[in-house]
Amino acid sequence: MLSLDTTSFLASPRHLNVFVDSTQQLSLAQVTNQKFTPSSVALPLQTRHIYWLRVKLNNRTNQPQKRYLYVGNWAYIDLYANGRLVGKSGRMRNYQERSVPNQRQLIEYTLSPKQSQTLYFRLQETMAFYLKSSFEFTAQSQAQVQKQTNNIRFSQGIFLGIIIVMALYNLFIFFSVKDVSFLYYVFSIVGVGLYFMFYYGFTLEFVWTQAAIWNAHSYGIIVPLTRITWVLFTKSYLHLREFLPRWNRWVNWLIYLYLVPIILTILTLVTGQDFSTSIVNWVGTLGVIVLSIMVLMGFLALRKGFKPAFYFLIANIFFSIGLILFIFEETGYAPASDTTRYIAQLGIIFQVTLFSLGLANRLNSAQKALAQKEIEKEVERKQLIEQQKKQLEVTVTERTSDLRQKTQELEDAVQKLQKSEKDLKELNHIKDKFFSIISHDLRSPFATLTSFLNILINFADEFSKEEMEELAKRTQQSVKNLSSLLENLLQWAMSQMDQNQFRPQEIVLKKIIQETTNLLAVSAEEKKITIDWDIPQDTLLYTDYNMLSFIIRNLLINAIKYTPTQGRITITAHTQNASDAQPWVQICVADTGIGIPETELPKLFNAQEHYTRKGTQNEKGVGLGLMLCKEFVEKSGGTISVTSKLNEGTVFCFEVPGSA
Question: For residue 646, what are the contacts with CB-CB under 8 A and spacing of at least 6?
Fold first, then answer.
């Protein structure tokens, strides 16, 4: 019998009696009649049995004694006293279902003064890993339990606070530099913190408060995922693909091996079959391998010249020592001790601190590289902007050029339309003039000739010789006018049909002047007009013979027509030589005729005006001659001009190319 005289005691195995219910069906009434044996007889413990632990307590004091009873970490614990259920606890029960909502499986019980009591604990385990090598029983006062709870909460609060701060710090760095190493490290820190919350019961108390079964098996998920992030962090931080490519491929297999306990845990939750021992041993063995490889990879990367590996190596040496000791304790290869757990947590804090320094150093390097990259990007951006600016300028220039070209084409089209309109008007005017000439100027000479012939046939006997001579002269003048008119009309028609082709040749000017004056000598003699010309013998021209003959002939005909009797006509030629260009010859025809009013001069060469007037002896013209002269002169590349004074005379000058 155990006495409650002291505030705390740990019962020895000889005070503990056990009955093994292999059927898992017996009630308290049935068990109390069974034979209990020393606890050592019931060993080894198995999950297929239910164990009834009997403890006898005695309160020899005069005060009620309240104690918190602990019989070990079992899945389900039920306490019976006086034939009824007085308390519940167990790892597979939520805090609300436990008699004492504490991370340890405690049951509160009060013993009256001077009272003895036999207690029966119904113990059931569903996970073989948690089965111990012996039974235990501890009774503690409320003050002792509260002190232990406060100590655990305080120490673990500091530890988890450091974990949270470092996780947030590295998460902030990750969002700043987008380096995946920081993200892997954040996950590894969170995983370590979550595991120790599980270890001390805080996950069931604060995280998943209604999932006790999941909480009991979450070890097989939390730890493998945390170790996977360790591997990924090692690969990323040490750049194994670059510095240690062969090791990088082998390290990848560790990730695949950690999928095994995750799958086994899921099978346990789904089927209810227990794989806890295999899961813990697998995770523990891989944990030792991973921690050892992390130290080895840090050493090899440092030898390769990767300086940030120094922080990684030093931090993981202490971290690995602490966690390997903790793994040995968890897997049963080392005795359970608070010291081991504290060493593991100190190693974690040391690792987090050094890694923060290492990551800060890497951050500085990354920031410098980022700054350099930003500078390069800025230079590249400026170059791109400059290139785009030039391209834009080229595009604008091309578009402007295209626009100008289109505008010019449009202007040319407008000008062509305007020219076509002008040409059509001019042609229409010429057409009207042509029909006017045909209807009037051609009809008059023919009418005169017809009248003369009619008089000659019917009335010749009635006229005197002098009258007949006068009629003959008038008829002759009409025929001459008709001949000149027909020649001009022929030349004009050929010009309009573009049949007057310009065929330049070498011409002796003196010869063509002589031929033309001889042709018109009779007309000049009739009006007693003197034609003087003084042309140098060596004056040679290079132009179309027929066109030049037409020009000189028309100018002489006009001079004779508008020069009164006893007048004078003078023909001159002057060669304009140039050392570096073709010589030009200026030919002038001057008369002492009646002259032309200054206001009428612009009309002489106007195709729409067809300016004409009667000569000194009523000679008629149609205004085509000067227009054709101007056209023929321009075909040879020259110009024609006129000066005149009333009652003094007129001078026509034109230029034609000379022969070199």
Answer: 594, 595, 596, 597
